[in-house]
Fold:
Amino acid sequence: MLKKLLSSLLVVAFAVCFCGCDLKRPQSDESEKDSRKYLALDTVIDITIYGEHDDVFDTMEEALDDYEARLSVTEETSEIAMLNKSGGEYKKVSTDIYNIINSAKRVHDMTDGAFDISVYPLVKAWGFTTDEYKIPDMEEIERLKRNVNSNNIMLDPDTLSVRLMTGMQIDLGGIAKGYISSKMISSMEKSGVESAIVSLGGNVQVLGTKPDGSAWRVGIQHPDYSDCYIGVLSLINEAAITSGGYQRYFVQDGKTYHHIIDPATGAPAETDIVSVTVVTDKPIDGDGLSTAFFVMGTEKTLKFLDENPEYKAVILTKNYDLLVSKELKNSFEVSDIMSDANIVYF
Ligand code: ADP
Ligand code: MG
Structure:
């Protein structure tokens, strides 16, 4: 736990400097804005709001505690833990949890199963929930894989009930942060906030522009150097969501095993992608998609993006190709550190 906390704090340090905050902060802005940091949802959460909005921060903090209590897979009393113990019965859930599961099923369909919240028993078997990492044997992987299929999650919209097939367990960690950031931003907007940025680990969402009318500048972390970024996105009313194998992993016998599992193999995804950032005004889908793209690899991801132009992406591959949606050409500034990369606009 302490290890997890420390690694989260390292992420904080990074987030403060390069992730999601204004990289060229003019001095005059300082008095007008307020930032708070929270440790929740197994990550560091950073919120910056322009204007006097103390009450909004309080509301955000309460909302985060509430989401955490409902989503935690380890907290016995959470809605997810209750579902995971429900043994094939329909269980009523809150609207938020229902909506997140519904979105997760949609992203599962869109990505031919690369995104699958029912991969959770495998995430657990590899030790990613406890940091007690291990390589499960093939027999265990095959046994657990049999219950992985989000098509077997039944939803009843009339009663807001969810039924998991017996033996199935889910974890919303790959999509919940996108949902929460979008809820936080719309709640702020309702409270009269016009300019804000929310960063939940690799999920960054911005509201409006900065007060001077300029775009928010959001750095994408360099996978190898936590104090550098591969480039900076200019965002207005959009989200940028990053997934990568460098975020949580262990090394055994010289091989690296990361926390994104390919539902087809039951093992960490063998992918040619190092880091993938989805840029979209649909943060919920964007969160699920960034995880899915990592599993799908470059070829399938580029085909998906070609067919679904409402999502844009920045992809860093193992070959040091930096693949950038052509629509981002004017809003993504590549860092000098990437001068050896092969930059392709697709
Ligand atoms: P993070 O939440 O670590 O920033 P992601 O959004 O990519 O990054 O989600 C990774 C988390 O999602 C993992 O920790 C695990 O709980 C879960 N997960 C792993 N593989 C998959 C998958 N193929 N589909 C859905 N969820 C996954
Ligand atoms: Mg995700």
